[in-house]
Design brief:
2 domains; elongated; mainly alpha
């Protein structure tokens, strides 16, 4: 299959997955389309596939080989893990404990008022805003 045809196939699959709300597969197919265009094979010969048929993993089913998935090895894709595989991702999300208290001028042992956290979430300081949004998220998680 020519590189452009293969890229068009992957772009169509990316659009289908994007419309269905599956961002991970849409991104994967967009990556495969870019790789097909940049592979450098201009003679129209296949780029590793022995047939023009799409692989099972190109269709979202189980994979018969891991060639398409090798590019994602070692990447942390969330899933409740902190990169070490132990499921404590929130502990690794808090890089500077107490920083929000210091930035808002609230002593460490006291609760930060919700109004202050909400105002900080809309701050022009991106670091302060991120910390405040994380605090709001953690507050909602605590209630469960």
């Amino acid at each position: 299959m020519a590189n452009h045809a293969k890229a068009n196939k992957h772009l169509a699959a990316a659009a289908k997955h994007s419309k269905a709300g599956n961002a991970r597969l849409a991104q994967h197919h967009a990556f495969l389309a870019a790789r097909a265009l940049s592979s450098g094979q201009q003679d129209g010969s296949p780029s590793g596939d022995s047939t023009d048929e799409p692989d099972a993993d190109d269709m979202g089913g189980p994979s018969d080989n891991d060639q398409d998935n090798q590019d994602n090895q070692g990447a942390d894709h969330g899933g409740g893990m902190d990169g070490n595989g132990n499921g404590h991702f929130i502990q690794s999300a808090i890089k500077h404990p107490g920083a929000l208290h210091r930035e808002l001028g609230v002593p460490q042992g006291q609760t930060i008022p919700a109004k202050k956290v909400e105002q900080a979430a809309h701050s022009s300081n991106p670091t302060l805003a991120k910390r405040a949004r994380l605090a709001e998220t953690l507050k909602r998680l605590r209630g469960k």
